[in-house]
Amino acid sequence: MPAARWSPEVGNMNSFVYESSDESATATLGAALAEVLPDGCTVALCGTLGAGKTRLVQAIASADGVDPRTVVSPTFMLVQEYQGRRPIYHLDAYRLADEDEFDALGPDEYFDGVGLTLVEWADRVAASLPRDRIEINIEVIGPEARRFTIIAIGGRYADIIERLRARL
Ligand SMILES: Nc1ncnc2c1ncn2[C@@H]1O[C@H](COP(=O)(O)OP(=O)(O)OP(=O)(O)O)[C@@H](O)[C@H]1O
Ligand SMILES: [Mg+2]
Question: Which ligand has the shortest distance to the CA of 18?
Answer without folding.
Answer: 1
